[in-house]
C-alpha cells in the first residue's frame, strides 16, 4: 500500500512539473510572437513604449529612478518615461562598450531602423530593457527600431570624446572577462590593481563597478558579494583558494592574451587541450565538434576542482571504456590537467607551479572498472587508501581521488 502511494505521489509530481514546463513554454512562445508584431519604422517614442507591458515599463522606471510614479496609469507613466529617456541618453551612452554603441549608432544613422538578425540576441535584449530600442517586423522582416527622437539625441551625442570613453569601457570589460576566465574570481581591490596595471592608468573602483555591471549581459562574468566572478566560478570557493596562496601572485598574462580571452566564446585551447581533443576524435571516431564539447566540459570540471577520478567517471558516461582504453584516456587526461590554467592556482597550470617550486605535478591515480588496485602513474607503486593522495591535496587517498 505504501509503495503504491509513493508511486502515485511521484507520478503527480512528475505530471505537475511537466505541466509547469508546458505552461512556461507557452508563455515564452506568446512573448516571442508579441516581440515580432508589425511596427512602424517611424514610430514615436511614446507609441513605442506603449507596446511594452506594465512590468517592462516598471523596470525602465526603476532604472531611471523616477519617484512617485508607481501608481500612475500606463499612459501617464509612458509620458514620464519618454521625457526621462530623452534626458538620460547622453549619460547612458557613457557606459556603453563598443559593440553596444555600434548598434545604437548604426540605427541612429539608418533613420532608426535596421535588421535584427545582425546582432546577438543578448545585446538586443539589453538595449530593449533600457527602453531605447524596440523590436518588431517591418515589411515582414524582423527589425530593430529606434524612435526618431532618440536617434536624434544619439547622433548629437556622437563625438571623439564619447568614442574614447566607449573604447575605455570595452577594454575594461574584455580585460576583466579574460582575467576571470583564468582567475575565476577577483575581489574589487585586486581587479582595480590589475586593470591599472594592464591599462597603465589609475582607475576608480566605483567607476569600474558601474561600467562592468552595466555591460555584464554581454560578457561571461557576474558581480557577487565579494567582487566579480566568471559565471562558471560562482559558488566554486575560488577566493578561499586564492587566500590560501597569498604569497602567489596572479599569473602574469600579457594584455593581448587577456583581450583575446575576453572575447565571447573563447576557450583556452593550448597544446594539452588540442592533444586531448585530437585523441578523442581519432580513437573514438567522433566529429571535431563533439570532441571539443567533451574537452570543454573537462576544462570546466578541472576549474571547479574535480579530481582525476571524477573526470574519468564523467568521461565514462560519454565514452565506452574498458581497462585498456581507460588507461589510454588517463594517459592523455593527466597532461591535459597539468597543462590547464586553474582558477584555484591564480591562473597557473600545475606544471608551471611545479617548475617554480620544484614540486611534482599531478599524479594520476585511477581505479579501472572492477579493480581495487590503485597505482600512481608517477611512481608505479600501489597507493594505500590511508596514504596521502598523490594529487597533492594533503588529504588521505581514500577521502580524495580514491573516494
From TrEMBL:
InterPro entries given in the database record: SEC_C_motif
Superkingdom classification of source: Bacteria
Identification of the protein by name: Zinc chelation protein SecC
